[in-house]
Amino acid sequence: MISRRRRAAPLIVGVVLAGALALGACTRVRDHQGFILEETLVSAIQPGTDTKDSVMNTLGRPNFTGSFDQNDWYYVSRDTRNMAYNHPHPDRQTILHIRFDAGGNVASVDRRGLEQVASIRPSGDKTPTLGSRRSLFDELFGNIGAVGSAGRGAPTTDNPNPK
């Protein structure tokens, strides 16, 4: 009886450790991407008084600038969460848009949040194609004997009269 318990003890310990490791993988993962937003620094940016240089000194280089107008600066901050190996979902997001006038002074400071996140669900439908439906065997063996046989093809530009 005691020898059975001694043999089963390592097995039980192994099962308990494997279960603990498996449950440890199912933890919630939080991640931060982009600019680290400090409210005191952002509130210090004032339209009409700050310039590009003062914004650069206060907040640092922007995440990206406008494609068509270099006077638009964007600072993006995003917190995501996910469970184990699932796709991350945005938990909190801030897009700080600073627009400058032609003289390089701050014209406006705009802040957006999660309302800018778009959830796109691609369609699982297939695009219809023209032509016949051929099986794998038709694709693999359909040309056997057709190479070099006359009169089987349709007219083409290099062979307008197939025989």
Question: How would you describe the overall organization of this protein?
Answer:
A hairpin with a 5-residue loop joins β4 and β5. The termini are far apart. This protein is of the alpha+beta class and 163 residues long. 26% of the residues lie in helices and 25% in strands.
Largest sheet: 5 strands, antiparallel
Taken as a percent bin, the fraction of beta residues is 15-25%
* Overall outline: flat
SSE string, helix = H, strand = E? Answer: HEHHEEEEH
User: Could you give the distance between the termini?
Assistant: 90 Å
| Unreliable stretches | none
Number of helices, where a helix is a run of at least 4 consecutive DSSP H or I residues: 4
Instruction: Work out the radius of gyration.
Output: 32 Å
Q: Helicity level, as a percent range?
A: 25-40%
Structural class, by secondary structure, is alpha+beta
Q: What is the averaged pLDDT score?
A: 80
Number of strands: 5
Brief sketch in words of this structure:
The protein is an alpha+beta fold and 163 residues long. The protein is 26% helix and 25% strand.
What topology does this entry show?
Layout: H1 2-24, E1 28-34, H2 39-43, H3 52-59, E2 64-65, E3 72-83, E4 89-100, E5 106-112, H4 136-141
Antiparallel strand pairs: 1-3, 2-3, 3-4, 4-5
